[in-house]
Amino acid sequence: xxxxxxxxxxxxxxxxxxxxxxxxxxxxxxxxxxxxxxxxxxxxxxxxxxxxxxxxxxxxxxxxxxxxxxxxxxxxxxxxxxxxxxxxxxxxxxxxxxxxxxxxxxxxxxxxxxxxxxxxxxxxxxxxxxxxxxxxxxxxxxxxxxxxxxxxxxxxxxxxxxxxxxxxxxxxxxxxxxxxxxxxxxxxxxxxxxxxxxxxxxxxxxxxxxxxxxxxxxxxxxxxxxxxxxxxxxxxxxxxxxxxxxxxxxxxxxxxxxxxxxxxxxxxxxxxxxxxxxxxxxxxxxxxxxxxxxxxxxxxxxxxxxxxxxxxxxxxxxxxxxxxxxxxxxxxxxxxxxxxxxxxxxxxxxxxxxxxxxxxxxxxxxxxxxxxxxxxxxxxxxxxxxxxxxxxxxxxxxxxxxxxxxxxxxxxxxxxxxxxxxxxxxxxxxxxxxxxxxxxxxxxxxxxxxxxxxxxxxxxxxxxxxxxxxxxxxxxxxxxxxxxxxxxxxxxxxxxxxxxxxxxxxxxxxxxxxxxxxxxxxxxxxxxxxxxxxxxxxxxxxxxxxxxxxxxxxxxxxxxxxxxxxxxxxxxxxxxxxxxxxxxxxxxxxxxxxxxxxxxxxxxxxxxxxxxxxxxxxxxxxxxxxxxxxxxxxxx
Length: 636
Known about the structure:
Blueprint: E1 3-8, H1 15-23, H2 31-36, E2 43-50, E3 53-59, H3 67-74, E4 79-85, H4 92-103, E5 109-114, H5 121-135, E6 145-147, H6 156-171, E7 181-182, E8 185-189, E9 193-199, E10 204-206, E11 210-214, E12 218-227, E13 230-231, E14 234-236, E15 240-246, E16 258-260, E17 268-277, E18 285-286, E19 290-295, E20 298-306, E21 311-312, E22 317-328, E23 335-339, E24 346-354, H7 366-375, H8 378-389, E25 394-395, H9 396-403, H10 407-419, E26 423-427, E27 432-435, H11 436-456, H12 465-470, H13 478-491, E28 495-496, E29 501-502, H14 512-528, H15 535-542, H16 546-558, E30 562-566, E31 569-572, H17 573-587, E32 592-593, H18 595-601, H19 607-619, E33 623-626, E34 629-632
Parallel strand pairs: 1-3, 1-4, 4-5, 5-6
Antiparallel strand pairs: 2-3, 7-16, 8-9, 9-15, 10-14, 11-12, 11-16, 12-13, 12-15, 17-22, 17-24, 18-21, 19-20, 19-23, 20-22, 23-24, 25-27, 26-27, 28-29, 30-31, 32-34, 33-34
Helix pairs in contact: 7-8
């Protein structure tokens, strides 16, 4: 099980030298770094502590100009070695690195008092007291403080023993099985092509895997893997990994992108955060403030939207939204760092509580739901995320990044929630779920909608599924609408007729005047045969307007009395059925049916009725048009 150890501390306090003394690896790989004697970029080393335990080590730059590189390396660290030079004591970047580690959720570590060979015992004791005072109230308050010298070797055995103890403690820590590798370097290797490097947050990558570069979504395949400089067929969480990508140029890639499997991450320009302003910040963070935002290896300008206040004061924590100029990919629980413009310094840290946020109004009801996201875990977190998602629901893949749960654990939770009807699976193919309470509210709304239709249109036997879906359910995912309706049908709360659905007990009911109208309209159409009056003529005869007549015509259609053949022409069903029979009888002895034959067959109809009826026969697949004549479709 790999574990990640990071270093932190002020420039020239001996972090890189200490790592070399522990591992034999020089993390200063750049010519400029060796020339200037300072670490600029991230450095990496490893230490095999046992057959089953490899310690990955990230050496971060200490100079204040390179704090953004420190942030990129610190994400994913399990514990930290804070290096403080015994001859200088606590310095500005000591404090800032300590704050950054705290904001990134690092909760334990050890303090190495480096360069102990350069001071006497009395001075060393003064430094101890000073450091202990600075660490008071921080996550390193109770940490061991071990004086060491990379030059003489003093204290290295004791420090290494402490590191092994912490590594074993974190070796049992389970990470998500969602593979993510934030890219911190991109380069070309002769004979191999494009290579990216990074330290994987979680999951596993195998040789030959298909991958995407997020957030852009560029496709590639793994043609080569190295872990800490050695070729391998697989790379797991916490390991320093170099990935040889096929089909991509160096110009396609940049620091800050994320390598992951297809369909596992979801770019978004809005995240919901739990934001903490450092107590040491000179001033609070105002609503809509633009800041340098650090996540993984990515630095981007972003704007903070406070949801329940106008200013977040130093030392306070609040829920907020961050909005990016371009999409980002994150996972629930990821830690982020925010730095001000001027002076350029760390002022806040944040934890992602929703990486697929949508813009919400300040001081709104949704703020309560966000509060639940920040505090819930396990099944409660899944339910809170489903509640926040609303009727759109969330797929299994989306829930993975919304909860950071391991796949098997998430499967068990969803099975349990489904059994209790607290979560409803409505799309088996995409494995999309909706909150159970919302599903019940929507089902009740559908029943209420049918009740209103029955009350307002008593002549209608019900509503067709298509009309119900495109009307009441137009804002819902079609599969969610189908799931809700089928559930109501199984429960008997809704009944399916031949072509419509309706509530149990609903019967078509007509008032006395409507019964009279029904009788008169039926008589007019049945008496007219294949030469019916237009809707306008019927309305004028009954002394009503066409809008008042429309419900009755629809009712008679649904009752199987009338048939709509064109926009303005209704025919008695009995007349049209007889016409169909006459046409089929005609084709028993003829190949073709022309307009003249059809006119004779129907008793001398005019063109006004002939054309709509012939087109109706085509539409009903009784006939098909071939040139100017019709042929029986079954004959081809």
